[in-house]
């Protein structure tokens, strides 16, 4: 801010100084010309005032650069304004004027202005040889030599300033373009950085949601079974030792399965790509590890575990068997698993029906349970807390594959979960 103000003040004082010099040169030269022509005092004063006014136009040279050039062309016939002409044509080329003056800042227009200034200077010098060059003519200098010198002087005071102004103007415009481009690049880089930050934030949120969903599906089902079997073991440990031993064995099997699945998920977090040395995408690794162990073929085992926990599960498989993508197989398995877990939590001892139907290009599934008994112990009282994330996780899984999901109570008082997964890559 201070630098800009200092620059403006310096430019203002420079223009004032140049205007003073040009006004003195124009007024003095015009007055001398009028005096040599034998004009009266009033005419000499009027010409001098006109020259001072013409030279003062340099005060507005940056805003209206064409005005000093026009004033110089008007004073050249008075054999004055040469300093004004040099500064004017330089300013016209160095600055980018607006409006009508912009057309005179082009190279062709500048050439025409310089030619006009040269012609005026030569004509004035030629017409005034007798009055202004008397000493040279008296000493034997030829008139044509004086004309040639006039041409050279005219070229010297108009062409070099114009060329210098055009060069400075082109350089200034180039710097401005580079500065604007740099500012544009900075803005673009800042925007890209913001977008990258937003994408990274979204990726983190999606990954956290996916990990939370995976952990919920693994832990909720297995731990629910463990709690149910632990309760049964507590009740029969003294009455039926054989059944207690069977429940203990089931608890050990369930615990080992839960640990295996947790190791699979946690192992993904430690996976490192050999080339990039960065954590591998969690979804890609999970597809490779879990697809081999979890799918529609594992549903009978899942049903048996639920039956062992006290649910009356009826499993029905229909339709023409088709090979589905690993992600679809895993999603179908997780939906059935979470539905059975919810029944075990909220309606233990009820009858459950699991229906799997292969359809064209995918699979449809439904899990429904009957109305629970009125004296059923709430899930929280049995040590089975519910975070309310099960249905959300099932819906997210199904929608991620472009499927449809529905869940809600039935007219008979039970609950029903339905999902439909259609995959374009399913083959017969």
TrEMBL record:
Name the record gives this protein: histidine kinase
Pfam families named in the record: HATPase_c, HisKA_3
E.C. designation(s): 2.7.13.3
Reactions catalysed: ATP + protein L-histidine = ADP + protein N-phospho-L-histidine
Coiled-coil region(s): 168-195
Domain Histidine kinase/HSP90-like ATPase: 329-421
PANTHER family: NITRATE/NITRITE SENSOR PROTEIN NARX-RELATED (PTHR24421), NITRATE_NITRITE SENSOR PROTEIN NARQ (PTHR24421:SF10)
Gene Ontology molecular-function annotations: ATP binding; phosphorelay sensor kinase activity; protein dimerization activity
Limits of the Signal transduction histidine kinase subgroup 3 dimerisation and phosphoacceptor domain: 207-272
CC terms in the record's Gene Ontology section: membrane
Record keywords, A-Z: ATP-binding, Coiled coil, Kinase, Membrane, Nucleotide-binding, Phosphoprotein, Transferase, Transmembrane, Transmembrane helix, Two-component regulatory system
Domain of life of the native organism: Bacteria
Gene3D superfamilies in alphabetical order: 1.20.5.1930, Histidine kinase-like ATPase, C-terminal domain
Native organism: Streptacidiphilus pinicola
Membrane-spanning intervals of the chain: 12-35, 41-60, 67-90, 110-129, 141-168
